[in-house]
Structure formats: C-alpha cells, structure tokens
Specification:
The chain is mainly α. The chain has 13 helices and 9 strands.
Length: 405
C-alpha cells in the first residue's frame, strides 16, 4: 500500500536474482518473465477499461460477478478500496493519465470509511486507494484521509486484550471480542500514521495487536486459526474458531496468506525478528504443503476433505506471491531465491489461460477461480477485486525485482 512497492527490492538482496529468473524461464522454453508481466499489464488495461465502461455512472464498486453480472458494493464494504487501488497500480505501470483520473475518482468515493467506527478493515478500504494515491501523487488530502482513518481504527483497540476488535458483535452473539487473522493487514495504516503524525500510540497499538496475534492465533506447524475470541475484561482466550474456513482446526488458504503478508510487513516496519521468523514459518507451511497443487494455486482450504474435488482460491495465490516477493528482500540469498522462484512460478500459473481472463470476459476482472466465503455458499469460483489488486501488486514487485538484477 504505502511503502510496500518502494521497499520491495533492497540492496542487500541484489544478487543477480532478476537475471537468474529471466534465464531460468528462457532455458525451460517458457515465456520470459518480463514479457509475461508486460502481457499481463496489457490484459489488465483492456479488462479494466471494460470494467469501468460497463459500470460508468453506477454508484458503487465492482466486487465480483454474480449471476453473470458485475456485483457492485458500497463505500462501507470491506473490498471498496481495491478498485481504486488497482487503478493506481495501472497508473503506476503505464503512466497513462486516464488511470490516474479514474483512480482519483474511485478513491474519493471511499471517503465515508474515514469515520466508520464499525469497521476493522480501514487499512484495506483507505490504504489501497488513498495510500497508493499518496505514494504516487503526494496529494496532502490523501494524507489527511489516511490519518483520519487511523484515528478511527484505533478506537477498536482494547488494551486489556492487546488487539483491535474485528467486526461488531451482531455477527455472532456468542463472541465477546473477536479477532481475525485478516486484521494483520490493517496494521500498515497504523504504522504509517505513527510516522506521518509523529504519534507513537498508533505504532504501539499495531505492535500490541501483532504480538497478541502471534501468541494466540498460530499452531506449531505455522498455520493459523481464522478467529480468536477474547474476554474483553481479562484478555483471556475464549475460543479459537473459523468463519470462512472448512473447520475450526483447518488452514483456510487466504487466512494463511494474510498472515504471511502481515508479518512480513510488520517486520519491514519494526525489524522485530520474531515477526520475520513467523512470516518464514507461514511461508514454509505454504510452500511445503503436500496438498498444494503443482501449479501452486491453493485449494480454498488446505484441509477440505473434498480435495481435489473442491474450489481453488486464486486470490490467496496472488496475496501469497506478493508477500513472498517482499519476504525475499529480508532473507539471505538461498531463501530469497526460493521465495522469488516460488512467487514467480505462482504468477506464471495465474498468468496462464487457466486463471487469467481473456479481454472482454470475466466481467472485466482479471483472475478467475477465486473463492470468497465457501461455508456460506458465497463467491465460489468467481473473480474477486482483491485478487486482482494483489495480482497487480505482485506483478509490479516482480518487475522491480527483475529491474534490480
């Protein structure tokens, strides 16, 4: 969002890895990675032209395809920021002013999120649009919106628990203070705000949340529970359950990707070694899992007993690819190469006709075969706007890696 692309490639990691990736692809008769990225970005430009044209004048944000039609959601939907975020990435990739104009328009539409105290996803909702807009334009109005959102988000922090509450209790009356692994992704907004406003409290909240999650969400194998419910008066764990996974004890694929990404980002911001160690544990769980398909696009849950006759989640693959590319920048040469090679191989799969839509298809979205909420029967084998967002981010990170050589 804010610093992630500018920090994706670091001097210590410049060990001719980019050249190695290109050479490896050529030696195997594969499309060179730089050509693949260029092709993907052309496809993205064509698809998002279609997506915007189809929904011009409509109030809302394209989220997915439902019943053959693009489903639009409001500004307070947790996914609202990903459309402006993808448009900012297209502007970064192409320099085309039309993407800048469209990104600014859709970013402005997410303004209601700044003061929405019912949400824990303000990092997604504001960071993807306002954060990338600030990074690419320096517009001070974007800075102000981000600071307002951070101030709103910290109202959900409970110092006794040491976490930011996820959702409000209407979601489930048996919960008293739910925290989901997804919430790691919203901490970047607070880490940014601590620096931008010179206010340490935002950083303190983010670190407390990351520490509490590290203590209570993870299993010995590096996988995470989806939701931990706490007693808000004592901070004690009441339950460890799932909402979007197959079972309480299963490894919901996108949740593992959120965790890997979140702890990599928190290491970038704090240099706390335990965060880097956790990111690497999650990466090992992911990369070495016996039920990860050969194309590296996971089933929606690693423990679905219906595997292989169940749905994939291309959005989880995109998130994990972006996380691995950043994680490589904090790793020694052997690990860096493994992470980059794995991410590149995953992106090759996502760039294939199996997952990447042809221009004019898929409602205008990029990736096919994502899974949103299978237990609820929602958004199964469809495009998802956040899958596209992290796919574009991963492509730009890989492009930066190749350029660094």
């Amino acid at each position: 969002m804010f610093d992630r692309l500018s920090q994706a490639v670091r001097p210590a990691a410049k060990t001719f890895i980019g050249i190695g990736l290109l050479a490896a692809g050529a030696a195997q008769g594969q499309e060179p990675l730089d050509a693949m990225i260029a092709r993907d970005l052309r496809t993205a430009s064509a698809q998002y032209t279609t997506l915007l044209d189809k929904n011009a004048g409509q109030p809302g944000f394209p989220r997915t395809v439902e019943g053959g039609q693009v489903k639009l959601v409001g500004a307070r939907d947790w996914t609202s920021g990903f459309i402006p975020g993808s448009l900012w990435y297209l502007y970064q990739a192409t320099g085309d002013a039309r993407w800048k104009s469209a990104a600014a328009d859709y970013t402005a539409r997410t303004a209601p999120a700044k003061f929405d105290k019912t949400q824990h996803d303000l990092g997604f909702m504001l960071g993807s649009g306002y954060g990338n807009g600030l990074r690419l334009t320096g517009d001070p109005a974007y800075r102000d919106a981000m600071l307002a959102g951070a101030t709103t988000l910290v109202t959900r922090f409970n110092p006794k628990v040491g976490s930011i509450q996820s959702w409000d209790l209407w979601k489930n009356t048996s919960w008293t203070f739910p925290v989901i692994i997804d919430n790691m992704m919203n901490l970047e907004l607070l880490m940014w705000a601590a620096k931008a406003a010179n206010e340490p409290y935002y950083r303190d909240v983010a670190i407390a949340h990351a520490d509490t999650t590290l203590k209570n969400h993870f299993r010995p194998d590096g996988s995470s529970f989806h939701l931990v419910d706490y007693d808000p008066s004592s901070g004690q764990v009441r339950a460890r359950v799932t909402v979007q996974g197959n079972a309480d004890g299963s490894a919901w694929a996108r949740g593992q990707a959120w965790g890997m990404y979140g702890y990599t980002m928190m290491y970038r911001e704090t240099r706390k070694p335990e965060y880097l160690a956790q990111a690497k544990r999650i990466a090992a769980f992911w990369m070495q899992h016996p039920r990860l398909p050969a194309d590296k696009v996971p089933y929606w849950d690693f423990d679905d007993p219906a595997i292989p006759n169940t749905s994939r989640d291309s959005s989880a693959a995109a998130i994990a690819s972006s996380a691995l590319l950043e994680l490589a920048g904090f790793s020694d040469a052997p690990d860096a190469k493994r992470y980059r090679d794995f991410a590149a191989a995953t992106l090759r799969s996502l760039s294939s006709s199996e997952y990447l839509a042809k221009p004019g298809e898929n409602g205008g979205f990029l990736l096919k075969h994502a899974t949103g909420h299978k237990p609820a029967g929602k958004e199964i084998d469809v495009p998802l706007n956040y899958g596209d967002y992290y796919f574009l981010e991963a492509l730009l990170r890989l492009k930066a890696t190749l350029a660094a050589g």
